[in-house]
Amino acid sequence: MPDVHTPEVRSRNMRAIRGRDTKPEIWLRKSLHSLGFRYRVSAKELPGKPDLLFPKFKAVIFVNGCFWHAHNCHYFSLPSTREDFWAKKLGENVKRDERIIKKLLENGYRVLIVWECAIKGRHKIKSDQLIAAVSEWIKHSACSGCVDGKGLTDVREIERYFYCCGGKIPHSC
Q1: Hey, how many other C-beta atoms are within 10 angstroms of the C-beta on 168?
Q2: Does 65 reside within a domain?
Q3: By Cβ atoms counted within 10 A, which residue in 90, 94, 95, 114 is the most buried?
């Protein structure tokens, strides 16, 4: 099926997609701040500029969009037009995520991925339960993890981490 927009309109739409300060990210930040957590936003000195850095807990949080990071959920499906382009682009995003997370783990940080589907959509987690799980992870978890519509998953081995958090795009580093 051909694109319903002209190239100029499609280009303008794609430029409007923000990489930071998204609604799910702002909601999570405000919720954690109201619980007394203090953090830095988009720490430029760390690989991947994590959305939230908690220096006191040596922890970082990424709030990932399910489509752009190829999460295996109802928000992600490979577009039917230009499949090769999208498979390559999203596959590269996943590979970049892997490299960034490996670097953060090597530097002693715990990493939590909060997927968009955990915050909104048909399989979202109740707000108070999600914030409680993230808060508990920040304060007490010894390992990294991810939060999606199924809840919080702690992950100790890096290979299992990417299996848990990965999407439908095949990748290897």
Answers
A1: 15
A2: yes
A3: 114
Strands (E), the chain: 40-41, 52-54, 59-64, 110-115, 144-148, 151-155
Host domain of residue 135: 21-165
Write out the two tokens for 1.
């099926």
Is 110 in contact with 58 (CB distance < 8 Å)? yes
For residue 30, what is the domain's CATH number? 3.40.960.10
What's the N-to-C CA distance of the chain in angstroms?
A: 34
What is the per-residue burial (b if ≥16 Cβ within 10 Å, else e) of 122-147? eeebeeeebbebbeebbeebeebbbb
In a domain, 13, yes or no: no
Report how far residue 70's alpha carbon sits from residue 166's, in angstroms, rounded to the nearest whole number: 7
In our burial notation (b when 16+ CB lie closer than 10 A, e otherwise), range 40-74 reads eeebeebbbbbbbbbeebebbbbbbbbbbbbbbbe
Q: Is residue 107 assigned to a domain?
A: yes
Tell whether 27 is covered by a domain: yes
Do residues 82 and 75 touch, judged by C-beta distance below 8 A?
Answer: no
Element (DSSP H or E) covering residue 127: helix 127-140
pLDDT at residue number 1: 53
Task: Quick: pLDDT tens for 69-115.
Answer: 888 888 888 888 888 988 899 889 989 998 999 899 889 999 999 99
Strand partners, 59: 54, 110
